[in-house]
Inverse folding.
């Protein structure tokens, strides 16, 4: 058993570190690097961010693990992992839904036409996507979705509502699951579509969350979608959606974000005082940090298992659930621990002159709740594990 990175992997990691150090010297660096940002989803739609993604693309770092025939480099998923984790640790934009979710699903199931249309733009870093799964009556039980797609000449007409469509207010394309056959059993009769967010009949309205992250409700009023915008086979969308959600669980939730938080916690312990003495001397502080570090190592190992599964050409499913559950739980635990330890100024919000660490932990405390819900709630991850990993019968 060898947990060490190879020489090539270490050299690539160092190259990314150097690239990021150079990027930090750019004038617009403050718009690209936001170490206080909790998640990639909080990104603003700035030209600096888009330019940064294009520079990643120019280096061939978007879609490294994709097959060569689709413009990738056929490299082991480990390289994508190293890149994404470095980006997360630096508070930079991640490689994104296009590379990690949409592209991978199109490669497996999309038509040649869709691949030709979307894969080059994803690799060039010039296209943003929003995911349209959740609805008012379909969240954890996603197969209950009811956004209706009816046959029309040359395509489909869509009516209904999505909610929690993060990025829909600035993305170019919308990856939407709709019901094409209402009479079929609920896991059948679902079709996946790619729709431009500028399509007539689409209305995007802001939903504000407790973590300050913007997400959106999207209303469909007789939106026309041509036949060639169907991903894979009509009525077979459930299969592609569940696969794409497995990809999402490890594309979006990184261990790098937790590592940078651990560094903050250690910096606090080295400089703060507790009851008039250095925090690092307090046995409770030492024990608590040691526990967080142990959890962090477990999270890192679970992430590597996911990458290992993906590298073998399999879709990480139970691994991705364990990983998402562990990462998001630890994220919450870190914020909770800091709120318990740091005294009253830690609960003041950013902008208050007395706020500790510019309100970082107060915000983290609110934001990390969202992560345990988005991408499939923690309870659902546990259900998946009970069924798929442990083989416990479902009633
Ligand atoms: C910040 C944020 C961003 C999001 N972004 C997107 C996005 O971009 N695209 C998108 O489509 N969706 C998105 N979502 C939606 C997200 O996937 C859903 O919120 C999630 O799947 C839960 O669905 P729900 O909100 O309808 O809650 P419900 O399904 O109503 O669940 C409510 C509670 O009951 C629990 N529960 C439900 N069923 C079971 C069960 N069988 N066993 C045990 N417990 C259960 C849940 O865990 C949860 O705690 C986002 C959500 C958030 C918070």
């Amino acid at each position: 058993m060898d947990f060490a990175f190879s020489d090539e992997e270490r050299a690539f990691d160092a190259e990314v570190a150097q690239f990021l150090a150079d990027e930090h010297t750019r004038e617009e660096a403050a718009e690209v690097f936001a170490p206080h940002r909790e998640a990639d989803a909080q990104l603003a739609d700035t030209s600096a961010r888009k330019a940064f993604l294009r520079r990643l693309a120019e280096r061939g770092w978007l879609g490294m693990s994709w097959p060569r025939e689709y413009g990738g480099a056929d490299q082991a998923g480990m390289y994508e992992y190293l890149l994404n984790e470095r980006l997360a640790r630096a508070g930079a934009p991640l490689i994104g839904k296009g590379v990690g979710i949409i592209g991978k699903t199109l490669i497996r199931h999309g038509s040649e036409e869709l691949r030709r249309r979307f894969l080059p733009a994803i690799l060039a870093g010039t296209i943003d996507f929003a995911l349209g799964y959740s609805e008012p009556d379909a969240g954890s039980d996603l197969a209950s979705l009811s956004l209706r797609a009816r046959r029309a000449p040359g395509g489909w007409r869509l009516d209904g509502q999505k909610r929690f469509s993060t990025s829909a207010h600035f993305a170019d394309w919308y990856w939407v699951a709709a019901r094409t056959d209402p009479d079929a059993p609920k896991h059948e009769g679902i079709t996946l579509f790619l729709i431009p967010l500028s399509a007539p009949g689409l209305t995007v309205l802001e939903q504000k969350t407790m973590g300050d992250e913007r997400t959106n409700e999207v209303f469909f009023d007789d939106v026309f979608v041509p036949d060639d915008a169907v991903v894979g086979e009509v009525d077979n969308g459930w299969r592609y959606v569940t696969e794409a959600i497995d990809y999402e669980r490890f594309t979006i939730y990184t261990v790098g974000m937790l590592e940078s938080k651990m560094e903050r916690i250690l910096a606090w312990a080295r400089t703060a005082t507790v009851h008039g003495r250095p925090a690092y001397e307090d046995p409770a502080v030492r024990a608590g940090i040691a526990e967080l570090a142990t959890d962090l190592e477990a999270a890192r190992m679970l992430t590597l298992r996911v990458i290992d599964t993906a590298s073998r050409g399999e879709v990480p499913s139970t691994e991705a659930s364990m990983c998402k559950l562990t990462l998001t739980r630890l994220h919450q635990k870190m914020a909770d621990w800091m709120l318990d330890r740091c005294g009253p100024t830690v609960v003041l919000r950013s902008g208050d002159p007395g706020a500790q660490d510019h309100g970082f932990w107060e915000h983290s405390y609110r934001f990390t709740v969202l992560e345990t819900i988005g991408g499939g709630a923690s309870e659902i991850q546990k259900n998946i594990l009970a069924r798929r990993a442990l083989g416990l019968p479902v009633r």
Summary: The chain has a mean pLDDT of 92. The domain at 7-94 is CATH 1.10.540 (Butyryl-Coa Dehydrogenase, subunit A; domain 1).
